[in-house]
Amino acid sequence: MQYAIVTGASRGLGEAIARQYILQNVHVIAVSRSGNEELRSLAEKQGVDFHHISCDLSRLDELDKGLDQIAEIAFQKETHYVYLVNNAGVIDPIETVGQLEADAVQKHMQVNVTAPILFVNRCLKEANDLGVSLGIINITSGAAEKTIHGWSTYSSSKAAINRFTETLALEQESKGHTIFAYSPGVMDTDMQGEIRSSSEDSFADVGKFRKLKEEGDLRSPDEVAGVLMNLLKEPKKIENGRVYKLYDLIRK
User: Fold this and answer.
1) What is the pLDDT of residue 218?
2) CA dist., res. 32 & res. 58, Å (int)
3) pLDDT at residue 64 in the model
4) Which SUPFAM superfamilies match (predicted)?
5) What residues are labeled active site?
6) How close are the terminal C-alpha atoms of the chain, in Å?
7) pLDDT bracket for residue 217 (50, 70, 90)
8) Cα–Cα distance, 196 to 83 (Å, whole number)
């Protein structure tokens, strides 16, 4: 039995990834604040289990409760493989340093850094205790490697995820788990809408992102999820700890 735990699965890339797993007859645990009836209906049609865990990842109490529910569902004697896709993330605050609000920074780091670390921590413990293999995919961003005006918080959080992924892979190198980060590039999602709504004072390059939308240069979440699934088809070729970038994968 296989399960896929996908955070931020109600929309965007998370929804697209969850859909791909359902179509591959993998049982899905979707973690998000709101549900997705289309995914539930698709799972019923495919004859696979679909569980929605309602969870606000910015709240530690809800995160802990959600992890308990996930562990009870996914880590059973019949389970032999679990995918964990840490996809949930926020872009706000888009603002220059000196204008940042403490609550927004704290929430950002809780969702983008603390939550994925704790998801991996719990799932790894459960998997190692039961002898279950894990496929850990941390969704990152090219912003982790760039200096972008107004994105100090987001770039820092994604850089942290990249280093966490590398360290995790080092520590688990003899355990047989698959561990990597996936940088999906620029997609047509609600997050992109938030970016385009920024002011030029807060984000100097906002015009470039508006142009991408106007000229139709944004990839769909389904296309980006498909590239990830193609990568997962050959797990033995995956280099643990590596950041796989969509643009490199589609050029192969």
Assistant:
1) 65
2) 11
3) 97
4) NAD(P)-binding Rossmann-fold domains (SSF51735)
5) 154
6) 32
7) low
8) 32
